Amino acid sequence: MSQVEWDSDELEEKPFNRQYMKRLIKYLLPYKRILSIVVLIVLVNMALSLAEPLLLGYLIDEGILKKDFTIIYWIGGVLLGIRLLGWLFGYLDTRMINFTGQRILFDLRQQLFNHLQTLSFRFFDGRPAGKIMSRITNDTNAIGELINGGLITMVMEFTHLIGIVAILLWMDWKLALLSFITMPLLYLIIVVLQPKIEGSWSRSRKTMSAINGNLNETIQGIRVIQAFSRQKENNRRFDKLNSNNKQAFMRAITLESTVWPSVEMIGMIGTCIVIWFGAREVMNDALTLGFLMAFINYLWRFWGPLSALSKVYSQVLSAMASAERIFEILDTDPEVADRTNAKPMKPIRGEVVFENVGFRYGDDKPQVLRDVNLRIKPGQRVALVGPTGAGKSTIVNLLMRFYDTTEGRILIDGEDVKGVTLDSLRRQMGIVLQDSFIFSGTIEENLRYGNEDASDEALRRAAENVRIDRFVSQFADGYQTQVEERGSKLSVGQRQLLAFGCVLLSDPRILILDEATSSVDTETEQHIQAALQTVLEGRTAFIIAHRLSTIRDADLILVVQNGTISEQGTHEELIAAGGLYRKLYTTQFDMQQSLAMQTGA
Ligand SMILES: Nc1ncnc2c1ncn2[C@@H]1O[C@H](COP(=O)(O)OP(=O)(O)OP(=O)(O)O)[C@@H](O)[C@H]1O
């Protein structure tokens, strides 16, 4: 599978690829019965509609010219019947194909979503969330459109075209060939201009997605925009994008409005040749009037399928681009996955050992950790400190098995984490990130995120222990209050407390905590610290600490520097050692002192 570009502008069309088409057709197989019925109905409908001009010719020759009203009534009735049947078949077809198309879309989207959730962090690194989302929505839609409309149009219009050509040749091959004289001209117009039209539609769509991207960024960043008074500059940028879109659209529509009328014009030349030649034949009694009318009627029907097919073709090409992107996701295997002989992790006591652990985020990326050796006893409270980018988060990422070590191994209670099932391991571990993620739903649902079956009593106790009961009771709906995605209804401190509550309820044996850097008011800070003491009790804990004052009583402090543990010990030991920790501590301490003096606290 080719490497699909994620950062650059994604191509909207790709050449026809038989392999992708075969894979796409596999999604149709479970519905082959219903699809065969659809195709059958389409073909019957097409045959009925193709009979119309012949019936019309018969009506003229045998009914009108011979003044036979029985034939006129009969043919009129049959034509009406054909249209009625056509309407009924069309209705059935549309329903069936839309139903099947939606089922296939449903299957594809579900498969993608399920697969996406199994993918490792490395997949998401460097792949913008917006683009992943667009793959699941836009790209599946493009494929859905092809199935819904495209494939049936293709079958229908192709048989229509073949049917028309066959009937024309059968009726009078010389006259048919004469009317095809203009074909090369037509071919030239379609081949040269149609890609240009598609190109300009594609530009129009691209400019539209630029508008969407800009809108998205503006809404997400509205606070920063207003804070920096950037509205004017933003308006200018948006204005440019907006007029790009307008121009692209106008060009597309101008081209489109010239091509099809010219195609019809050329078609008319063919028809005129038939009229000039055919009329003479009718006058010489070599052809009947009804025959000529039927022939011309078929000629007029020729352009519809041609235009529909050229549109379907570009639909196929854009579905190829979508298929490539979708299959790239489906073909990516999760890097961190259960080994075939993985066993469930026993109930964890909490001993953690790092043995010569080394790590890099990618083969072409620099070494981030090297020779990390640690031995943590069950229940120990470990603090990780060090400059930004030193590797603290990486250490906990490895412990959670978000990534696998590239060198060395990590043992929990003597078990190599790579040898146990991910589910059994992660269920016994908990993590609270700096920016606690709140899912849309109620506060209770968020609390239960790690343990849906917790009793109401346990929920209440956890909430009290982390002191969220106080602010929750102020909401009219209490624990049933709906919180929005990313928890914008809650303050930073409240979100952190909620995340603690969730972790407490899921009762992990090893807890990882990325201490919030954002400052909260002193009272919330005290709440957080008190809640933290409860949450940490009886668990092995790793705390990535930014405020060194909060970790003075940690059992072990690890100083991470350039991907290695440069110092380790208790606060007193490290201060006495006079290394980096002492430097960091005294700098922070001095800063706090001077801040306190300035604010008069
Ligand atoms: N997903 C990633 N892909 C590639 N490189 C990464 C990734 N995450 C982190 N890094 C790199 O690994 C190094 C260590 O990063 P890490 O996040 O572990 O540092 P940290 O000590 O936690 O920093 P901070 O205190 O700022 O959070 C950095 O140089 C960073 O650029």
Automatic annotation (TrEMBL):
What are the record keywords, sorted?
ATP-binding, Membrane, Nucleotide-binding, Transmembrane, Transmembrane helix
This entry's Gene Ontology molecular function terms read: ATP binding
Q: Which SUPFAM superfamilies match?
A: ABC transporter transmembrane region (SSF90123), P-loop containing nucleoside triphosphate hydrolases (SSF52540)
SMART domains from the UniProt entry: AAA
Q: Does the keyword Lyase apply?
A: no
ABC transmembrane type-1 domain boundaries: 37-318
Q: How does it sit in the membrane?
A: Multi-pass membrane protein
Q: Where in the cell is it found?
A: Cell membrane
Q: What is the name of the protein in this document?
A: ABC transporter ATP-binding protein/permease
